[in-house]
Predict the structure.
Amino acid sequence: MSQQQEVSQPVYKSNALVEASYRLTPAEQRIMLSCIAQVRRDQPITDEVLYSVSATDYAALAGTESHSVYKELADAALRLKRREVWITERPNGNGNREETLVTGWVQSIRYRKAEGRVELRFSKDMLPYLTQLTEQFTRYALGDIAKLNSGYAIRLYELLCQWRDTGERVVSVEWLRDTFLLEGKYPAIKDFKKRVIEPAIEQINEHTSLWVKWDQRKTGRRVSHLVFTFGEKSKRVSNKRHKKDASSRTASEGRAMFGIPPEVIAQHMQPGDSWQDAALRVLEARREKTY
């Protein structure tokens, strides 16, 4: 698979998996997402299918030129094999009747050192969250997370993509701690913001297609919720350009043009006219000695 094909490959995850509690390093995330991007959504899969990640693919996605890429890939794959993921759902949407599944990401790894790649087999319990998704799923391009070197940034990016159409997401601090599986790390809110939130936001703003702003809400004196406001950078640039053009048009209005005083131009403005249209009309009329 070429680098261009690899990074443009879409990643699909069920929302339950996006919101699951787990912690992966950026290297483990890249391997996992590279495999997920290979899942065929139009076909049922079994836990017998092996998904391959080469050292070349990994290096392209990570943007590294290290001479020990294969070792990094192999070591990260082994750590991934040992990771747990806690997936909580409400079957059939039944209120608070939660069910939590604790499972692993992959059940086996095959190392093909001579070929410079590893092959991974998803755990059976993981399959429903990766294939045949018709609703309640999140999609983004694999390349969107290529330059993120923080596991928290990747997780937060996914959580924002899940609410991409709304442009805002409000989460409780405790829920986010559980989702990131911090297990008591950064108990002080100032440390949580400094070590987790702020670096993640900085990376998302610098390296992904989203711009993000955030704020906090308090319950009493305690910071209880975080508010993320976000959108597509392309739309923001388009809006800025539109505002700039409008501003330029507005700035030109109220000014003399072709030696015609602005008050005269204003008197001869017609619906749909630009300032220049009205000025040209006055100029033409003057030439015809109408005015």
About this structure: The radius of gyration is 27 Å. The mean pLDDT is 82. The chain has three domains: 1-143, 147-249, 253-291.
